[in-house]
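Supplementary notes for students who missed Thursday's class. We covered one full example, reproduced here. Read the sequence, then the structure, then the short commentary at the end.
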Amino acid sequence: MSTDLWLRRFHPAPEAATRLLCLPHAGGSASYFFPVSRALSPAIEVVAVQYPGRQDRRQEPCLETVGELADRIADVLPSYLDKPLTIFGHSMGASVGFELALRLQERGTVVHGLVVSGRRAPSALRDERVHELDDNGLITEIKRLDGTETQLLDDTEILRMVLPSIRADYKAAETYRRTEGPRLRTRVLALTGDSDPKATLAEVDQWADHTDGGYEREVYSGGHFYLNNHVPAVLDRIRAHVRDSSSPRPASSPA
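Structure (token representation):
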């Protein structure tokens, strides 16, 4: 399995003291994090994950479980663990990031920090079945969340290419379950929008139950893709998390 297929460094920063691994949302791709890479380099080297089934990997079969995604990424990461690693995941990417952090911890690497964005905690379960809807229903949901550039969904050819990966990602996110099991030893920072229909503040705060490394929460105005309207503030918060996580402290209450 080629590391180059999975991991993308848009702005290599060999002198950076730390790395940020970015995991996309359902239907998302590594290129979503190109601006993040540009903004944080060269102080932090950004590595973005490209899931199979999209863009230059669209000929590959999609993976339909969070666990399998985490397994595959963990297998290609060893050469990137020579520096402290912080994981950032948005929406489905947050679930994948959590499971990835657990796998790395089991293999002897405690990640520097985990930033979970726009996602309720693994133990905050909902019975969601968007992935079972027909194509029109799936498109309606995507437009409601205002994530994937909605004008692209009016292009029949592009729509035909992206819907299978979106459906597979929704299935992975909606069928993911973890109510008990090992806890992280990593500090967790949760970022969320105050009107996100996919995650209430109470559901977000349950992330504190999944780590012994400390928990903080930051709330922004907006919905599921609040971060698109708060890029400078979100990047500043990530920088601070990377910096502060270098000196662990006891678990804290939500901000």
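Commentary. The two ends are 41 Å apart (CA to CA). Confidence is low (pLDDT under 50) at residues 247-255. If anything here is unclear, bring it to office hours.
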